[in-house]
Amino acid sequence: MSDATSFPKSEIKVLLLENIHQSAIDIFGNEGFKVETISKALPEDELVKKLEEGVHVLGIRSKTRVTRRALEAGKRLLSVGCFCIGTNQVDLEGAKASGVPVFNAPFSNTRSVAELVICEIVMLARQLGDRSREVHEGKWRKVATSSYEIRGKTLGIIGYGHIGSQVGVLAEAMGMRVVSYDIRATLPMGNNKAVDSLDALLRQSDFVTLHVPETPQTKNMIGEAELAKMKEGAYLLNLSRGTVVDLDALAQAIKSKRLGGAALDVYPEEPESNSDGFTSIVRGLPNVVLTPHIGGSTLEAQEAIGREVANVLTRFTNTGATTGAVNFPGVDLPPLVGAHRVLNVHRNVPGVLRDINRLVSERNANVIAQQLATDPTIGYLVMDLDKEVANDVRHAIAELKTSIKTRILY
Ligand SMILES: NC(=O)C1=CN([C@@H]2O[C@H](COP(=O)(O)OP(=O)(O)OC[C@H]3O[C@@H](n4cnc5c(N)ncnc54)[C@H](O)[C@@H]3O)[C@@H](O)[C@H]2O)C=CC1
Ligand SMILES: O=C(O)CCC(=O)C(=O)O
């Protein structure tokens, strides 16, 4: 039996973790929702406890793992918002199976990441991290050894999506030659040349930068074998996800001087909050720039992400619209006028629509508007009905064995 939900706005509980920007808190607050904020990521047990207490809208950034167990504990959970680009931290299939759409901000921090990549390319080429640290320590090493211009050098971009293509455009403006590798065909921006294999990219690039999502295919996609294919003295940048690079192999390639340096913003294990310490095999290596997952951490990006994700979550809560959800069939819906709206997520199995239509017609309900979107596993049906019968229809549909989540909007 599904969990039927309908309530006044003041009873909608929003839980925001990981220092989500005030712009989001303001949007939810102005909407009349109840907002609780916690500045760090929650480990699974604590998240389960919070969700069991009755959270309707959960907001996270990249660190909180939203597991199937957490989703199953969140009986009242309506939606999850990732206030970032990556959604690998959420069990997306588990969320879908629980009738919970997951939203993100697909490009509000793109430019911030791209700018940091360009900055770090110059840093690596000039050994800026090391020179700066030395001067802070009172050492004056004015040397040109192993310092280069980036003009005319080749930048290899792995993952030519939003961030990768922005990086390419900026790098060309700095006089670099740009090549890219992606598993799908993409529109090359500027003079970028797509190459047809990872090998080809690794062998010709002076700088290699990674902009792929965390997936089973990208896990350790840069390991010992791939590092061995890179040019002598080349540089590696990873501002995507920590699982993409084998850090033991990277540390070895730096120590043996096979690579000239690396810039890392993400790690396989990251601290949950700013007060936790950080240990890694790559700490203390020469010409290795380490940052604490700040690729998207600019005020501009955080403010924009806060607004963007809070708005889509609010729109889903108020209208049922799932446009932009990363794990759910998309239904774009206008605000509700002159009717009640029944929203039903169901298992996509034969006979489900027949059963729903029977319940509607038995109640003599007039369907004012109806939308259905499906994928191979679920269906999302939205019906605007006469006010007199809508609640009765909602309860009857919620009782169907095929229903996953059913709610009504007044
Ligand atoms: N360091 C930070 O603070 C941030 C990190 N990120 C990370 O950057 C990643 C990329 O972001 P976007 O460019 O917005 O994503 P996107 O989805 O626009 O682009 C990713 C590209 O990678 C390609 N790709 C996927 N698997 C691949 C594979 N095995 N080999 C080659 N290419 C592959 C895709 O086809 C796509 O074109 C995000 O998934 C996120 O993990 C994003 C924002 C901030
Ligand atoms: O700073 C954050 O919230 C995470 C940024 C990130 O990795 C992303 O947007 O995917």
Number of strands: 17
| Small molecules in complex | 1,4-dihydronicotinamide adenine dinucleotide, 2-oxoglutaric acid
Q: What is the 3D form?
A: elongated
Q: Per CATH, which architecture of the largest domain?
A: 3-Layer(aba) Sandwich
Q: What is the third-level CATH name, the topology of the largest domain?
A: Rossmann fold
Q: On the 0-100 scale, what is the average pLDDT?
A: 96
In helices, the fraction of residues equals: 25-40%
Work out the count of structural domains: 3
Outline the low-pLDDT stretches: none
Reported for the largest beta sheet, the result is: 7 strands, parallel
CATH homologous superfamily annotation of the largest domain = NAD(P)-binding Rossmann-like Domain
Question: What is the beta-strand fraction?
Answer: 15-25%
Radius of gyration: 25 Å
H/E element sequence? EEHEHEHEHEHHEHEEHEHEHEEHEHEEHE
CATH class category name of the largest domain: Alpha Beta
The class by helix and strand makeup works out as: alpha/beta
The protein's oligomeric status is single chain
Number of helices: 13
Brief account:
33% of the residues lie in helices and 19% in strands.
Question: Could you explain how this protein is built, in words?
Answer:
The protein contains 13 helices and 17 strands. The strands form three sheets. A seven-stranded parallel beta sheet has the order 9-8-7-10-11-12-13, sandwiched between helices. The protein has a five-stranded mixed beta sheet with strand order 1-17-14-16-15, covered by helices on one side. The mean pLDDT is 96. Strand 7, helix 7 (162-173) and strand 8 (177-181) form a beta-alpha-beta unit. The protein is 33% helix and 19% strand. It folds into three domains: 10-108 and 299-328, NAD(P)-binding Rossmann-like Domain (Rossmann fold, 3-Layer(aba) Sandwich); 110-290, Rossmann fold (3-Layer(aba) Sandwich), CATH 3.40.50; 331-410, ACT domain (Alpha-Beta Plaits, 2-Layer Sandwich), CATH 3.30.70.260. It has 410 residues and is of the alpha/beta class. Helix 1 packs parallel to helix 11 (299-319) and helix 5 (110-126) packs across helix 7 (162-173). The structure holds 1,4-dihydronicotinamide adenine dinucleotide (NAI) and 2-oxoglutaric acid (AKG). Belongs to the D-isomer specific 2-hydroxyacid dehydrogenase family. It catalyses: (R)-2-hydroxyglutarate + NAD(+) = 2-oxoglutarate + NADH + H(+); (2R)-3-phosphoglycerate + NAD(+) = 3-phosphooxypyruvate + NADH + H(+). This is D-3-phosphoglycerate dehydrogenase. It holds the Pfam family 2-Hacid_dh. Residues 341-410 form the ACT domain.
